[in-house]
Design goal:
The structure is a homodimer. The first copy, chain A, has about 425 residues and is of the alpha/beta class. Chain A has two domains: about 5-175, 3-Layer(aba) Sandwich (Carbamate kinase); about 245-420, VC0802-like (2-Layer Sandwich). The first copy, chain A, is about 35% helix and about 25% strand. Chain A has 13 helices and 20 strands. An eight-stranded mixed sheet of chain A has the order 3-6-2-1-9-11-12-10, with helices on both faces. In chain A, strands 5-4-7-8 form a four-stranded mixed sheet. In chain A, strand 15 and strand 16 (about 305-315) form a beta hairpin. The longest helix of chain A is centred in the N-terminal third of the chain and has 16 residues, at about 15-30. The first copy, chain A, starts with a strand and ends in a 17-residue tail after the last helix. Chains A and B meet through helix 1, helix 2, helix 3, helix 4 and strand 3 of A and helix 1, helix 2, helix 3, helix 4 and strand 3 of B. Chains A, B: Keywords: Amino-acid biosynthesis, ATP-binding, Diaminopimelate biosynthesis, Kinase, Lysine biosynthesis, Nucleotide-binding, Transferase.
């Protein structure tokens, strides 16, 4: 008898009908003899509706109260899911993040899990019940106030509970069949990946693959918890995220997949004095404004001027804050101007096999050149090559690279409607 | 500096606009120098919407999960109210029933408050914050599960918190100006009562006056906590519920008011053997089925038959259960039949002065006779006379009695739209 943690996202429980379908899936697992802990997100648009209410009463609601408000969402979905399971003749009990022992920092809106003390969940399992836990939420260890974990928080809740309970696997149910070699909406013959290491999955998630959030994969790697990504709507075997690159056999696939990202913008700081400390002051400013910087390129200083241009990419959502923060230091740094470009796209090629095959980057750039894609920025890691190009070139670039490395499968991938949280 | 507990019902916080109005009222009290604890119900129709969702997933949802679901309602309203107060520049913190220390029995759906340990509320007040507490909910002392208090639960929460905190007054904000000598929708010149004792208010509440629930008044009397009933929509001084009949001056008003109730039905058990124990077995059956019986009348045995009829009133909502339970014992008790009549109305005249004025009942029946109202059942207490009549006669009867005892005021009462929870 195994212990399985299952996580269902907001679109999987968007209405009463879907909640009943999910209940059947959970009961099927229980019937097979496994103990089950389920982590559930808020139903469909509930979070957006609650945010809308908050904006109607206050332009800048305090984080503590916003967390109190938003956590009502999972409270509703988890209670309904427990009722639906009861109705199938199985005992189910719902628990808030606080009741499930999810202890966090006190940073409202993006708290981090410090510890998990799942005593009540163990008690429920011991009595033969299915435990339903609210995702995305916890309680501050210091202040005892209710907190939320931020984007992708439900996935993190699931992995953290699985680790704390010593579960055999953490199943993340979503609206796609698993992890693919590229986005099937762009590359019709994208192939589903059967198994992928934590490191590769981390690079994919960091480079725009939306199927799993970075934090959740980091957590799983830290505790060695296997993640099984599966579809809520099919019986496809899905993708297993487990194991380290170090343990991979030599005959592994060279390349895992292609990720792309349209959510970033590029800021160029023009005419920065080419002297020690200028770049440091610029990126200190960005860090102080809590801007997440991704890629950075500094041009060679234009001869004779003593000045250079620095470009970096960042999430579009951080764009206005970053531009304002940089404007404030223009006089002090004495740079000439700021350019903001949100029509860029990022493409990344990821593969653990890349480490021992120096020819990969060459083939990658060759494929892009043949497709007529102009490269604006480049960055690399041990198992990844990323480029920034025009966003209008991105689809062509993804297809070209995917084909060049022969990643396609025989069949077309199935794409489901809807999005997860 | 006083400590004031204020309770706002669902219609007072039905939308963002009303929440902002309530926030202003609360801040006004704080500005006047008082410490404020606010108890709030779920917004408008939230509870009904959640119940509807529950019915979509399960015909008979388990009580534990239903309570978990419904308590999401106050979580939303209290967080929004705290945000709205923040927006006016005052510190406000929301607390669930559990966080506020409302410890209850574990009977889901109608738990009773066992104890209140408001340590976190005291802490918030000590730091100058306004504490917002979810009404209608608590946490089971034994199982640590979330519970709800049943109908009128938010009023009870408010009085219980006021008592535990040693508040100076518990203000119940509602959609009427206060307690009236009769329902102003039936009696246009009904007069608002300035001050009323706990005993009289208990009788009014038990006899159908909807402004305060019986349990809340019982709680207030037990702890000697004054209740101030006020309108959320006006600055009318409202009604104070405080003090005992025993302390009333001799020159007090004879009669307090007229209450009516359309929510009861009458069951008649026909042809009950007129022998010891028959009635006992009937009412044991009713008690076993958790039926709340109100008035009982047993006719004189019809001469020669050795049989009698027994009639009693009960809430219409208990009607089907009671009829089924009684049918099951028909053979054993050997009664002849059951009649169910849900077209009855109850009218009650209440007044502490009644104790020392034996003529009140005579004038009461005289007024009903002159109005052509046929009386079907009668019951009395020390400070109350109640009758059951046809529901179609009820309005006429209320107006006749109200006029006979000269209860009317000079001005017409103001009636507001909407209903509270």
């Amino acid at each position: 008898m195994a212990l399985v943690v299952q996580k269902y996202g907001g679109s999987s429980v968007a209405n009463a009908e879907r909640i009943k379908r999910v209940a059947e899936r959970i009961v099927d697992t229980r019937k097979a003899g496994d103990d089950v802990v389920v982590v559930v997100s808020a139903m469909g648009d509930t979070t957006d509706e609650l945010l809308d209410l908050a904006n109607q009463v206050s332009p800048l609601p305090p984080g503590r109260e916003l967390d109190m408000l938003l956590t009502a969402g999972e409270r509703i979905s988890m209670a309904l899911l427990a009722m639906a399971i009861h109705n199938l003749g199985y005992e189910a009990r719902s628990y808030t993040g606080s009741q499930a022992g999810v202890l966090t920092t006190s940073t409202h809106g993006r708290a981090r899990i410090i510890d998990v003390t799942p005593g009540r969940l163990r008690g429920a399992l011991d009595e033969g019940a299915i435990a339903i836990v609210a995702g995305f939420q916890g309680v501050s260890q210091d202040t005892k106030d209710i907190t939320t974990l931020g984007r992708g928080g439900s996935d993190t809740t699931a992995v953290a509970l699985a680790a704390a309970l010593g579960a055999d696997v953490c199943e993340i149910y979503t609206d796609v069949d698993g992890v693919f070699t590229a986005d099937p909406r762009i590359v019709p013959d994208a192939r589903q990946i059967t198994r992928i290491t934590y490191e590769e999955m981390l690079e994919l998630a960091a480079c725009g693959a939306k199927v799993l959030m970075l934090r959740c994969v980091e957590y799983a790697r830290r505790f060695g918890m296997p993640i099984h990504v599966r579809s809520s709507y099919s019986t496809n075997p899905g993708t297993i995220v487990a194991g380290s690159m170090e343990d991979l056999p030599v005959e592994q696939a060279l390349i895992t997949g292609v990720a792309h990202d349209r959510s970033e913008a590029k800021i160029t700081i023009v005419g920065v004095p080419d002297e020690p400390g200028a770049a440091a002051r610029i990126f200190e400013t960005a860090a102080g404004a809590e801007i997440n910087i991704d890629m950075i390129v500094q041009n060679v200083s234009t001869e004779g001027t003593g000045r250079t241009d620095i470009s970096f990419t960042l999430p579009k959502t951080d764009g206005p804050t970053a531009m304002a923060a940089l404007s404030r230091i223009q006089e002090r740094i004495e740079f000439k101007g700021l350019l903001y470009d949100d029509h860029v796209g990022k493409l990344s090629l990821i593969g653990a096999g890349m480490r021992s095959h120096p020819g990969v980057a060459a083939s990658f750039f060759q494929a892009l050149a043949e497709a007529g894609v102009n490269i604006e920025m480049i960055s690399t890691s041990e198992i990844r090559v990323s480029v920034v190009c025009r966003d209008t070139d991105l689809d062509v670039a993804v297809r070209a690279v995917h084909a060049a490395f022969d990643l396609g499968g025989a069949e077309e991938a199935v794409v489901y409607a809807g999005t997860g949280r």
